[in-house]
Amino acid sequence: MRKFAVQFLLRGGSMLFLPISILWWLSQLIRHLNRLRCSDVAIIDPHMVHYGNGLATQDIARRIFSGRRVIYALVWEPGSTQNFKIGSIWPDLDVILLRKPAISFSAFGKFFSFPGIGILTPVLHWVTSVFFSTLVPKSSLMTMGEVRDSQPIPPNLAGFIPEDYGATKLVGVYIAVLWTAMMKSNQQIPKPTLSGREREAIYARLKGISGSRKLRLCMLYNRSVDGTERSGSPVENYLPAIKLLIDHGYMILLIADQDLNEDQMASFNGLVVDAGRLGVDLDLFRLFAPTEADICIGDAGAGMLLPMIMGGPSLTLNFHSIGYATPSTWVYPKHVVDRSGAYVPYRRVIEEIPYGFYDTEKKQRDDWTALTNSSEDILEATKCFLEYLSGNEFSGVGDEFDPLIPQASLFASFGARISPAFIRRGSVGGF
User: Fold this and answer.
1) How far apart are CA 97 and CA 145, in angstroms?
2) 418 phi and psi angles, rounded to 5 deg
3) Is residue 194 a part of any domain in this protein?
4) CA distances from 149 to 82, 143, 311, 371, 389 (A)
5) Shared-domain flag, residues 36 and 78
């Protein structure tokens, strides 16, 4: 009875707020009416997504609708993960900001939204369609899902991805694989970059630190430690690799879920910088680092998506699982252990859990645990990566895993390779 009463109150609150939310949403659309009318394709979706999902959709839209005028609505709310400056890097995509027309908060360990998402989203979809049919009739209105589900399947993936992939359980995997395949195609589209003024301002601050030294730039992204199979390593584990990179002539542009403390930063004599220490806007810095760095190193996650788009030399750490994690030129996977603490051969990891938690139809191995990369793992992976940059192609290393890796995987679609450092430590994992 109590549960029913709570649900009744929440639904009643949602209905009370709904008219306000509709007017709030419409007022924002009207404010951008002139820009909307200039578009050939308008991607307006009231459903808010996280940064990585939005970034992927934006880049997919650029590729599918190349040569057309495309506008994308970035829906946000306070505390969300969106980068408000993302529109400044796209030369061929117009991005507008729309505030999510709802009041959201967390209390008593639960998330509340008024109106509730289940009520608000379908209503705003209908309101938006009426708005466009009336005031912007020449523009093709699309949702993010419609954009992502309209990617073409290239011939080499036709036997691995079903034509109705948008209606399958692995839709997220297939969308990401097809997007990655477009990146690797011969399509010519402009690379994302900040405007000259914004770039020059940040370069000037970097020069103020480096002085006359000619330093190369390395973006370093570390992910938070959250106890899940997507977790990053503790920040201390990255320090030896950072020192190695600096010794090789790199300045580190740190994009961190875990910040270095003052003593750690001081130990690198100013050659590790973040937005705060440079005195630049955080959102701009997070766009500058991956689009301007000579090399990019980071944990598997949304922070490595822009390096994927840029296509420069990159290394993904804490890579797991092989079918869905964000790939790079090289990847260093997580070692997996069983309940006894014994290492599981990586061949078995690939064969039995290629998509990890994402494959909801396949029973997960509760008796297996993916370990975050140790300090030694990260250091050895970085050493091998620097060796590769010096000209060692490590030809043939890791080829024995190729027949095991699903073709419908980000790893295969991107053309990634397993780090030779991981292969060298094969005795640990019993490959």
Assistant:
1) 19
2) -75, 135
3) no
4) 22, 10, 23, 34, 37
5) yes
Residues 226 and 323 in one domain: yes
Pick the residue with more confidence: 132 or 367? 132
Write out the residue range of the structural domain in which residue 225 sits: 200-429
Same domain, 72 and 134: yes
164, 187, 210: which is the final residue of a domain? 187
Is 193 among the domain residues?
Answer: no
The per-residue pLDDT for range 180-193, each reduced to its tens digit, is 999 999 899 999 99
243 CB-side CA count, 13 A = 10
Phi-psi sector, 249: left (phi>0), alpha (psi -120 to 50), beta: left
Strand partners, 272: 252
CA distance 293 to 341: 39
Which residues in 220-229 are b (16+ Cβ under 10 Å) and which e? bbbbeeeeeb
pLDDT, tens digit, 9 for 90 and up, residues 214-264: 889 999 999 988 877 789 999 999 999 999 999 999 999 999 888 899 999
Number of domains the chain contains: 3
Query: Is 198:288 a contact under the CB 8 Å cutoff?
Result: yes
Is 194 in contact with 88 (CB distance < 8 Å)? yes
What is the predicted pLDDT for the residue at 2?
55
What is the DSSP-derived secondary structure letter of residue 86?
A: G
Is 0.90 surpassed by the pTM of this model?
Answer: yes
Nearest alpha-carbon partner for 290 in 210, 371, 343, 217: 217
What does the alpha-carbon distance between residue 187 and residue 207 come to, in Å, rounded to a whole number?
35
Same domain as 114, residue 81: yes
